[in-house]
Amino acid sequence: MKNSSVSPATAVHTAAVDEFVAVRHNLHQHPELSNAETETAQRIQQVFAPFNPDKTVSQLGGTGLAFIFEGEKVGPTTLIRCELDALPIQEINDLPYRSCHAGVSHKCGHDGHMAIVAALGAELAQHRPQRGRVICHFQPAEETGAGAIQVVEDAAFAALKPDYAFALHNLPGKPLGQVLCRPGTFNFASRGMVVRLSGKTSHAAHPEDGVSPAMAMCRIVEGLTALPSQIEGFSLVTVVHACLGEVAFGTAPGEAVVMATLRTPTNEAMNTLVEQACQLARQQAEVDGLNVSLDWEDVFGASVNTDDGYQRVMRACQTAGVEAVTMEQGFRWSEDFGKFTELCEGAMFALGSGESSPQLHNPDYDFPDALIPVGLSVFRELIRELNGISS
After folding, report:
1. Rounded-to-integer distance, Cα 376 and Cα 10, Å
2. Which of 72, 145, 377, 381 could bridge to 316 as Cys pair (CB 3.0-4.6 Å)?
3. E-only strand ranges, 88-217
4. Are both 286 and 308 inside the same structural domain?
5. Domain assignment of residue 115, given as a range
6. Do strands 255-264 and 236-244 pair parallel, antiparallel, or not at all (unpaired)?
7. C-alpha span between 19 and 316 (Å, rounded)
8. Tell me, what's the pLDDT at 391?
9. Residue 32: which region, alpha, beta or left (left: phi > 0; alpha: psi -120 to 50)?
10. Are both 114 and 85 inside the same structural domain?
């Protein structure tokens, strides 16, 4: 395996893990975008077929899958979640398993997350839970923030509702194989705001005959950028796009669009920021007699770890011999795993993918294969404590 500097204490079941390195490479070659992960789901079903789960739920929240392993005794339901989707990024790596699909690639490491949970399925096939049940869940559409909502709102989820839920995400810039976790906010809430301004075009020689959104657009860009300084607590507004009129030197513009990403550490803070941002846009449009419409895209709630979930992750790392540190603050980037911990105990943890690794969503990023046994070992110890594992 590449990046094999991970401690031998975590490099368990090497021969079996190598099989799931091959699984990752196969998934990496065939990435699919959010809510289009049909073939990816089929590949995962083929991997799990020999594991003989007690029940399989397909088309969960779209293309999602849930493989259920039941114990003989009463106990909690533990859900281990990973993501099916890839990103609209052209890969530039020269890899033998390079993406076969132009403009689509696994640049967030979801191929590695899937390989870890698939390896866990192989473990559960040989060592069934003693009590309760364990669900290996492959979720669609994490990248858009829609997938977890689709899953928990699916009627089939009512029969799966977990008592505990856990997930991981690889993290470039941190030591290879190091776990990072914290109680409370793990990932910020975020959402994309789209402000559309509508006025009236006119001849560029007579702009006074039209209603231009130019000045209102500028004031909205400036106002949104300054908004966090006017609100108590941390928040962030990043203007990501602005467009005014058409490329036509004879025409004064009548339309404009401003797009911004809003981020906050809590859902409550997001509600305040949204209210202020909407008020700003409407006020500035009204000043110039413009119509305004507001839309939202890529809506993520804050992903919040419960205290119990965090403590269980830290104990699992200690038992597995994996270095673990407590983060002081949550990550500004977003994740939709928080939909699960709104319903049950649980936590997400980060898994360091190397201090020199390219960053997530970079076109040259590649998930380190050496993390597969590390993630597997932590998940296995979480299950051992909650559900027991047969010998």
Report:
1. 9
2. 381
3. 131-139, 164-171, 179-181, 184-187, 189-198, 202-203
4. no
5. 14-185+303-387
6. antiparallel
7. 24
8. 77
9. beta
10. yes
Which of 251, 268, 300 is the last residue in one of the domains? 300
With respect to residue 6, please indicate whether it lies within any of the assigned structural domains: no
Question: Is the same domain home to 134 and 252?
Answer: no
* Rounded distance between C-alpha atoms, residue 134 and residue 53, angstroms: 10
Q: Answer with the one of 277, 300, 323 that is the final residue of a domain.
A: 300
For the chain, the maximum distance between any two Cα atoms, rounded to a whole number of angstroms, is: 84
Residue 9 located in a structural domain:
no
Residues 133 and 33 in one domain: yes
Contact 215, 199 (CB under 8 A): no
Residues 296 and 315 reside in one and the same domain = no
pLDDT digits (tens, 9 = 90+) for 356-374: 999 999 999 999 999 999 9
313 shares its domain with 205 = no
Per-residue tokens: 117? 């949970």
Identity (one letter) of the amino acid at 356? S
Q: Which two tokens stand for residue 261?
A: 């990403």
CATH number reported for the structural domain that contains residue 121 in this entry: 3.40.630.10
Q: Kindly give, in sequence order, each residue whose CB lies less than 8 Å from that of residue 158, ignoring residues fewer than 6 positions away.
A: none
Residue with the two structure tokens 């977990």: 162
Q: Using N-to-C axis directions, what is the helix angle for 38-48 and 110-126, rounded to 10°?
A: 20
What is d(CA 213, CA 224) in angstroms, rounded to the nearest whole number? 16
pLDDT at 376: 97
Report the pLDDT value the prediction gives residue 115, as an integer from 0 to 100.
98
In which band, very low, low, confident or very high, does the pLDDT at 327 lie, cut at 50, 70 and 90? very high
> Residue 125: enclosing H or E segment and its boundaries?
helix 110-126
Same domain, 98 and 142: yes
Q: What is the pLDDT of residues 98-115, one digit of tens each?
A: 999 999 999 999 999 999
pLDDT digits (tens, 9 = 90+) for 129-169: 999 999 999 999 999 999 999 999 999 999 999 999 999 99
Return d(Cα 247, Cα 132) in angstroms, integer.
63
> Do 291 and 320 lie in a common domain?
no
Q: Could you report the per-residue pLDDT of 5-31, keeping only the tens digit for each?
A: 454 334 444 547 889 999 999 999 999
User: What is the number of structural domains in the chain?
Assistant: 2
Query: Does the residue 110 lie in any domain?
Result: yes
